[in-house]
C-alpha cells in the first residue's frame, strides 16, 4: 500500500532551537491520522513543512510520492487545508470568500456547498470583518469540505467553534473517511481524535513518542477498577499489576490495573465474591496525560 503522506527522519531548526527531531510517520489511503500534542510541541511546524511553507533542515517528506518542497504546486491541487486561525479578506462577504477559495482550488460552488453553509449555520451575506473567530473557521471549513480532494489537512480546525458545530465537523470528517479520503487531523480535543482517528501520533518537544492505533496504545496503559467484595481485598493491593490502590474499607476499593493483566486480576477478585464491579478502560486523555505528566515520565518509558 502506497502511503499518501510519508515523513522520514524530518528535522527542523530555527537557529539554535531544534523544533523537530527525527519525525517519522506515514498516513495510508483512506486513513484518519490524529496528530496530538500541546502548543509548541511541533505539530504546526510539521504541517507547514508538509504544505511547502517551510523547508526542512534534514530528512524527507512526501505527499502522493512527491516532494513537499519541490512539488508543492502539484500537491496543492490535490489537497484541502484548514488552519487553526483563518485570516480572511475583510471587505468580502463570507459567500464571496467561499467561492474565491473554491475557484483557487479549481472547484465550483455546488449544491454540496449550499448544504454545508446550512449545516455550519454560516451567514454568507456578512462581510468578513464582522466575523468572529468561529465564523472565520466556518468559512474555511465550508470551502474545504466542498473541495473534492485526496488529502485533507486540518490544523486545530474547530478552534472557536461551539460544541454543536464541532459535532457537524466530526460528522463531515467521518463522511470523508467513509468515502475513502485521507485525513491528517491535528487537534486539542481528545474526544474528537478518539472518535474519528484510525491511528494517532503523539508529539512532545519536537519528537514523536508514540504512533499506533488507540487499541494498541491502550494495551500499554491501565484500566481503573471500582470494586466491592464480600471478602477482604488485602491481597489485591500487593499484586504487581495493581497500582494506586485506595481502600474505602476492607472490602471496597479503587485501583488501577495494567490493561494486559485485567483478566488475571478479575479471576482473583471473583474468588473474593464480587458484590459490585466497575471497570473503566483507559481513554485517549489518560494516555495523553501519561505522556505529558513530567512526574510520570519514568513510568511512560517503562510502561508500568
Notes on the protein architecture:
This protein is of the alpha/beta class and 304 residues long. It folds into two domains: 5-216, Rossmann fold (3-Layer(aba) Sandwich), CATH 3.40.50.300; 222-281, Alpha-Beta Plaits (2-Layer Sandwich), CATH 3.30.70.120. Helix content is 34%, strand content 30%. The protein contains twelve helices and 14 strands. It has helices spanning 43-50, 72-76, 94-104, 111-119, 133-146, 163-178, 190-196, 214-218, 234-237, 262-270, 284-292, 297-302, and strands spanning 5-14, 17-27, 32-36, 58-63, 66-67, 79-82, 151-155, 182-186, 199-204, 207-212, 222-229, 242-249, 252-258, 274-280. The strands form three sheets. The chain has a six-stranded mixed sheet, with helices on both faces. It has a four-stranded antiparallel sheet with strand order 2-1-4-5, with helices on one face. Strand 9 and strand 10 (207-212) form a beta hairpin. Helix 3 (94-104) runs parallel beside helix 5 and helix 4 packs antiparallel against helix 5. The chain is elongated. Residues 294-304 have low confidence and may be disordered.
Amino acid at each position: 500500500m502506497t502511503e499518501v503522506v510519508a515523513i522520514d527522519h524530518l528535522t527542523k531548526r530555527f537557529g539554535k532551537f531544534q523544533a523537530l527531531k527525527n519525525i517519522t510517520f506515514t498516513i495510508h489511503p483512506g486513513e484518519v491520522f490524529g496528530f496530538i500534542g500541546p502548543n509548541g510541541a511541533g505539530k504546526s511546524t510539521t504541517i507547514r513543512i508538509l504544505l511547502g511553507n517551510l523547508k526542512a533542515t534534514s530528512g524527507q517528506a512526501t505527499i502522493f510520492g512527491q516532494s513537499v518542497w519541490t512539488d508543492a504546486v502539484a500537491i496543492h491541487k490535490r489537497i484541502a487545508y484548514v488552519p487553526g486561525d483563518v485570516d480572511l479578506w475583510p471587505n468580502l462577504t463570507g459567500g464571496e470568500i467561499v467561492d474565491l477559495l473554491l475557484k483557487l482550488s479549481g472547484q465550483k460552488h455546488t449544491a454540496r456547498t449550499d448544504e454545508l453553509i446550512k449545516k455550519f449555520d454560516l451567514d454568507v451575506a456578512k462581510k468578513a470583518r464582522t466575523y468572529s473567530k468561529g465564523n472565520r473557521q466556518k468559512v474555511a471549513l465550508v470551502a474545504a469540505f466542498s473541495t473534492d480532494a485526496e488529502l485533507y489537512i486540518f490544523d486545530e480546525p474547530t478552534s472557536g467553534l461551539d460544541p454543536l458545530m464541532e459535532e457537524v465537523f466530526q460528522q463531515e470528517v467521518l463522511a470523508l473517511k467513509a468515502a475513502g479520503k485521507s485525513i491528517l487531523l491535528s487537534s486539542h480535543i481528545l474526544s474528537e481524535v478518539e472518535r474519528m482517528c484510525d491511528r494517532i501520533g503523539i508529539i512532545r518537544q519536537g519528537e514523536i513518542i508514540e504512533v499506533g492505533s488507540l487499541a494498541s496504545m491502550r494495551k500499554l496503559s491501565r484500566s481503573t477498577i471500582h470494586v466491592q467484595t464480600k471478602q477482604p481485598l488485602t491481597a489485591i493491593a500487593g499484586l504487581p499489576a495493581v497500582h494506586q490502590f485506595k481502600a474505602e474499607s476492607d472490602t471496597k476499593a479503587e485501583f488501577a490495573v495494567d490493561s494486559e493483566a485485567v483478566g488475571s486480576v478479575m479471576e482473583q477478585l471473583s474468588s473474593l465474591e464480587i458484590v459490585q464491579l466497575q471497570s473503566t478502560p483507559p481513554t485517549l486523555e489518560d494516555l495523553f496525560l501519561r505522556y505529558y505528566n513530567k512526574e510520570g515520565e519514568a513510568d511512560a518509558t517503562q510502561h508500568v
